[in-house]
Specification:
Largest sheet: 6 strands, antiparallel
Helix content: 25-40%
Number of helices: 7
Radius of gyration: 18 Å
Shape: globular
Mean pLDDT: 79
Strand order of the largest sheet: 8-14-9-11-12-13
Number of strands: 14
Order of helices and strands: HEEHEEHEHEEHHEEEEEEHE
Strand content: 15-25%
């Protein structure tokens, strides 16, 4: 285990330019057809308690070259691990995976992977390492700011159906999931799961960091999701051949398809 400090703050890239250069021709992109599943709209559906915080996560790698982080991420994903990488505040690319209930179980898994030569040195990210673990009043403001900051860092990443990695692209719910998990909140993977996990928020009461949902596949089923930025803007992975970008809720297309919003704090 390395000696990396506690209470780290997670930052994604300040802009998407490096990813545009590396990933400009990556992947075959599909139409925006559900972002991980759809579900019938129930505007009054809400949760009974706050979104569960992340448990203990294994962090590995410290790469100056993003390609090395991409390769490690894919290596772990090929072993069935839910891995994703990000740009750390140190300026190095790091990789995270897992969500363990105890530090002992995270350490056991990390040592097993290390013994088998899958990973090298590692660091266990604890629940206390996230802003979401602090004083409640401070937590909400700080966590919302961090969610938006992390999300903006992925502007320019390409859309890819079923994707949840900056190395190959995101679909809409893969994007929101990674952003939330990097900020200590265990958001479900699919847009339908994300809809069911949150409490209903009126459009007039949206706060930055909330998720906004749309029925883009016809009817009234949730099939697309984005992260609210404030000022009627939201960030999302739009669809085929496009990259993560900001759009407006006032846009005619999204106004017609808007089905509701959810908060998790």
């Amino acid at each position: 285990m390395n000696s990396e400090g506690r209470n780290i703050k997670i930052y994604a890239p300040a802009n998407g330019s490096i990813f545009k250069k590396i990933l400009g021709s990556a992947g075959i992109f599909l139409l925006m057809i559900g972002c991980g599943g759809d579900t019938a709209v129930r505007p009054d559906e809400t949760y009974s308690k706050p979104l569960a915080p992340m448990g203990y996560t294994i962090q590995v790698g410290a790469f100056a070259n993003i390609n090395n982080a991409v390769r490690l991420t894919e290596k772990l994903q090929n072993r069935g691990l839910n891995a994703y990488h990000f740009l750390h505040q140190s300026g190095l690319y790091k990789v995270r995976f897992g969500n363990y209930q105890t530090k002992a179980s995270a350490l056991s898994r990390a040592h097993e992977l290390q013994k088998n030569g899958i990973i090298d040195t590692f660091y266990i990210v604890t629940p206390e390492d996230y802003a979401a673990a602090g004083n409640r009043r401070y937590v909400e403001s700080e966590t919302r700011n961090n969610i938006v900051k992390t999300a903006k860092g992925y502007i320019g990443i390409p859309y890819r159906w079923g994707g949840d990695s900056p190395g190959t692209g995101f679909d809409c719910s893969g994007f929101t999931m990674v952003v939330y998990r990097l900020n200590g909140l265990n958001l479900p993977r699919s847009s339908s799961g994300q809809w069911r996990a949150g409490k209903s928020v009126r459009r007039s009461q949206l706060s930055k960091g909330d998720l906004v949902f749309f029925a883009t596949s016809g009817g009234k089923k949730v099939s697309h999701v984005g992260i609210y930025l404030g000022g009627d803007k939201f960030l999302h992975a739009p669809g085929k051949g496009r990259r993560i970008k900001a759009s407006s809720l006032a846009d005619n297309y999204f106004q017609k398809r808007f089905v509701g919003a959810r908060s998790y704090l």
